[in-house]
Amino acid sequence: MSTGLVRTVLGDVPAEELGAVDSHDHLFLRSAALPGQELDDARAAEVDLRAFRAAGGGTVVQWTPYGLGRRAEHLAALSRTTGVHVLAATGLHQALHYPPGVVRAVLRNAARLFIDELTVGLHDDDGSPLPARAALVKVAGGFHGLDEHARTVLAAAAEAHHATGAPIGAHLEQGTAAADVLALLCDDLSVPPQRVILGHLNRFPDLRLHREAAERGAYLAFDGPTRAHHATDWRLLDALSTLVEAGHGRQLLLGGDTTTARARSLAAGGEGPGMPHLLDGLRPRIARELGTDAAELLLVHNPARAFTMAAG
Fold this sequence. Notes:
By secondary structure, the protein is α/β, with parallel strands linked by helices. The protein has helices spanning 42-54, 72-82, 102-107, 110-119, 148-164, 178-188, 207-216, 230-233, 236-245, 277-290, 292-306, and strands at 5-8, 11-14, 20-25, 57-62, 85-87, 89-91, 136-140, 168-171, 196-199, 219-223, 252-255. Helices cover 39% and strands 15% of the residues. Strands 6-7-8-9-10-11 form a six-stranded parallel β-sheet. Strands 3-4-5 form a three-stranded parallel β-sheet.
């Protein structure tokens, strides 16, 4: 178990206090690419967090980055009210998720913004500073490659990592371009691979590519199931089993990735499965397939290392 510190919205805590972790999810999200599907109800977010807590959850990592309606002003109160640790992200998503003109202005000082949000405080949706600080930098690749926007954001994220020790979480579009992300961050920009978390690999269930990414030393985050990615959800246990058998069990993370109001739990007014399913639904299946120790590794011990603020 790590003895490092993890930066929650209520302050830094020892990593061993995180408990069971939803390593990739969203309490709030607003995207120009998803009109009418905003995830912005604070009461529903509280209900989902309480349900996650009741299922045995201890921590939720919100990957919603700067400018996408992350409702940073609500995160500390939600954490305090529900007893669930919340980790917040700075960073930028793909340009298509932002209104026209927003990204161009931010990119000029992206590294400075990321560092400020990691060390001083997040900004709310109006741009006002808050005391809650970010715990990771969210970036995004493209579909089977990296465009100029992605390369600029990844370079800023690398600068922020070197200044703060924060991990970098990478959205992989449909699970692709893992090798491109690692080549730029690790080979060109000197970010240690164990400080990189590759998200959404279940969406592209090429087990050989998963092993290649794991062999580089990065963390691999698998999320779901969801309606959006139901077609590949059935391969999740195959992917996890293959990686555990290959000796990469200590690099695996699990998350729910709730991105729309419809995807919230039934209790929170959605159609499911929502955050509690990670523990009520997936954890028992992983325990049966890989053993209870493996389930504990993926949900408790690995996140405690992956989200520390120091290399580890």
